[in-house]
Amino acid sequence: MNHAFRLLAIAGLVVLLSSPARANFTDGLLAAQRGDYPSAIAAWRPLASAGDAAAQANLGILYEQGLGVEKDMAEAAVWYEKAAQNGNLEAQFHIGMLYAVGQGIPQDYTKAYTWFETAASRGDPRAEYNLGVLLADGLGRLPAPGQAAPWFRKAAEQDYAEAQYRYAVMMLEGQGPENDPALLSRYLLAAANVGITDAQFRLGQLLLKGMPGIPMNATEGLRWLEAGAEQNYIPAIVELGIAYYQGHGTPPDFAKAHTLFTKAAEAGRPSAQFNLCLMSQNGQGMPQDYVQAHFWCNVAAAGFPSGTEREMAIRLRDEIGESLSGKSLEKAQDLAKAWWEKHQEK
Question: Residue 51 phi/psi, 5° resolution?
């Protein structure tokens, strides 16, 4: 499965760090808490220049977020790196993030790995998760899912939802060191509950079909597919359309299936386009329409990679084309041409 590069995004809220009690640091903390960031900077800058790691980290946060100063990722990186070198855990995570995504400093996965490993060794679940991403996705190195799995597991044990999702996917795909259906189900459910769309989709699929150790629950499976579809996650929309078409967990409803397939087809999903071809040909969820059937099979054939599915779409398109008049065939071809032009513009 091709995962997007999903390092944890830096939080929008300012995380203010503690420091040994001293008047200037406390003054800065109180100023920041009431939103007076220029006063916080004035209090923390002398301490940061003198090597105070918490003050350095807080300056990094303020520069990153543009609070009290103009946003400056390069300056944020300078202060984060100083604080990280002085042992500040929050800064170690943040400088790892900046190296990973190349903000304020050149992208460097090796340095990102080093800082994430440092923070992860101290139990930071965000760093544990990001270390797993670098290893699993082969960023700056060859993919090493076997090395990634323990880091995902460590973060998952701290209820880190992204890590629970990634570890569950590894188990589903046979890449993880464990085969524990109860753990798989629990982690997918935790990730789905916080809105991770692929977790909702996978959990829905899993419950609709069941597997050894996880009994089928079509009602719950349908509910999770609907949750993913509500977030416009195309795989969930397609799977939900199939469930309505087949009457799996719900009475068959061709009209709903047609609506869902249309949404996915317009988003460029060839399987949904092919399903619309079949439904148009058979008059399911809409009046029978061979022009629409030819159009959708034509679009699907262009979208599928070389292989059986593409050959099937081409064969059905050509069979339908033989039953159309010259004028109707031209209309279907014009619809496909207009669709391609419209979607190439996007």
Answer: 100, 10
> Could you give the CA distance from residue 137 to residue 1 in angstroms, rounded to a whole number?
11
Residue 181 buriedness (CB in 10 A; 0-12 / 13-18 / 19+): middle
Kindly indicate the confidence band of residue 255, based on its pLDDT and cuts at 50, 70 and 90: very high
Beta-bridge mates of residue 214 = 211
Give Cβ neighbours of residue 329 (< 8 Å, ≥ 6 apart). Answer: 294, 321
Tokens, residue 231:
């977030």
The third-level CATH classification (topology) of the domain covering 22-121 is 1.25.40
Distance CA 116, CA 187 (A): 23
pLDDT band at 345 (very low <50, low <70, confident <90, very high): low
End-to-end Cα, the chain, rounded Å: 25
The pLDDT tens digits for 213-233 are: 999 999 999 999 999 999 999
- Contacts of 34 by beta carbon, 8 Å cutoff, 6+ apart: none
Residue 170 near residue 147, CB atoms below 8 Å: no
